[in-house]
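Onboarding guide, step 5: your first structure request.
Type a short instruction followed by the sequence, for example:

Predict the 3D structure of this protein.
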Amino acid sequence: MQRIRKGDEVVVISGRDKGKRGTVLRRVDGAHVVVEGVNRVKKHQRPNPMKNQTGGIVDKDMPIHVSNLALYNPAIQKGDRIGFKSLEDGRKVRVFKSNGEQVDA
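The system replies with structure tokens like these:
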């Protein structure tokens, strides 16, 4: 089970974009995710008439390692660590380490 999933709101805890908040758009592999508005770079793109793309300089979100992210906890208004807990019915859920609340309802 992954600690950070697609659709989660995360906070960057280290690196160039430290302190920024964003939503996870997709997972690239087991250790990298793409976060909206984080690790943005300028890419020089050539025009491609077959795909109907114009050329120029475009902004692109690049993958960031999950160790540089923390899940945003709305109760404390900060990034928080994630743990796992098994419920009575056998389901495994994610919980915040600071207050023990469930991440997903």
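Each response can be followed by summary notes, for example: The two ends are 16 Å apart (CA to CA).
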